[in-house]
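Re: that chain you flagged

S.,

Sorry for the slow reply, it's been a week of failed gels. I finally had a moment to sit down with the sequence you sent. For the record, here it is as I used it:
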Amino acid sequence: MKPYCQSCSMPLDGDEVLGTEKDGSRNQDYCKYCYQEGAFTAPDMSLREMETLVRNKMEEMNIPAETITMAVTSLPELKRWKKKSGHYIIL
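Prediction finished late last night. Pasting the structure tokens below so you have them in one place:
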């Protein structure tokens, strides 16, 4: 199973799509659209906002509806959005 961004669920197909840490090293958990220089690019984004963003972007790319639904419904289980003790944790 290939890795996915733990924020937006985008496939992490190669180093060129990986996010970066402050020292310029690649982060293996997040894509470059969600994570740059050691921080989220939209730190105040809510899970609902991410769901809308992912859905809209995938629709623009003409991705099949069932794939979009699978990606959007998987978001709450990703590291950035996963609930712990009833509260969302931001990692």
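What I noticed first: The chain has a mean pLDDT of 91.

Talk soon,
D.
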